[in-house]
Amino acid sequence: VQLQASGGGLVQAGGSLRLSCAASGRTFSNYAMGWFRQAPGKERVFVAAINKNSDLTYYADSVKGRFIISRDNAKNTAYLQTNSLKAEDTANYYCAVSYISGSWDPGTYPYWGQGTQVTVSS
After folding, report:
1. For 62, which DSSP code?
2. Which residues does 41 contact at the CB level (< 8 Å), separation at least 6?
3. How many Cα atoms within 13 Å fall on the side-chain side of residue 51?
4. Which of helix, strand or coil describes residue 85?
5. Does the CA dihedral 86-91-93-98 come out positive or negative?
């Protein structure tokens, strides 16, 4: 499956962005989906995940209550609504799909998008 992330940009602290991840190739609805982020010089870390049917969601503590993950299988697209953004949310955001629901381990995601940059100015 091919993934294309978009929606990043420059935003002031407290602002919002909606990231999208468009899938093509294999059946998107067969996979759980996750968002990760990577800041310069740091490891790629888990942000949020959603299962195939959208009835289970998972969040890192750092974004819980501010970010919302969702998906529309009919459109082969997943989303990450990012609200109340902070300077520490600045990173390249990646979407990925997995056979495992809710995994925090990047190694369990075989397919990745190219990333979209989110920069939050304080």
Report:
1. T
2. none
3. 8
4. coil
5. negative
Percentage of the chain lying above the pLDDT 70 cut: 100
Q: Whole-angstrom Cα distance, residue 96 to residue 49? A: 9
Query: For residues 118 and 93, is the Cβ–Cβ distance under 8 A?
Result: yes
Q: Please, are residues 118 and 91 in contact by the beta-carbon 8 Å criterion?
A: yes
Cα angle: 109, vertex 66, 102; to 5 degrees: 25
The residue whose two tokens read 């190219």 is 114
Sort 36 into a burial class: Cβ within 10 Å, 0-12 / 13-18 / 19+: buried
**26 — pLDDT class (breaks 50, 70, 90):** confident
- Per-residue model confidence as pLDDT tens digits over 56-83: 999 999 999 999 999 999 999 999 999 9
First to last CA, the chain: 37
Q: Which two tokens stand for residue 8?
A: 């990043």
Residues 96, 40: Cα–Cα separation, whole Å? 19
Q: Write out the H or E segment, with its range, that includes residue 86.
A: none
| Lookup: tokens for 49 | 């995940």
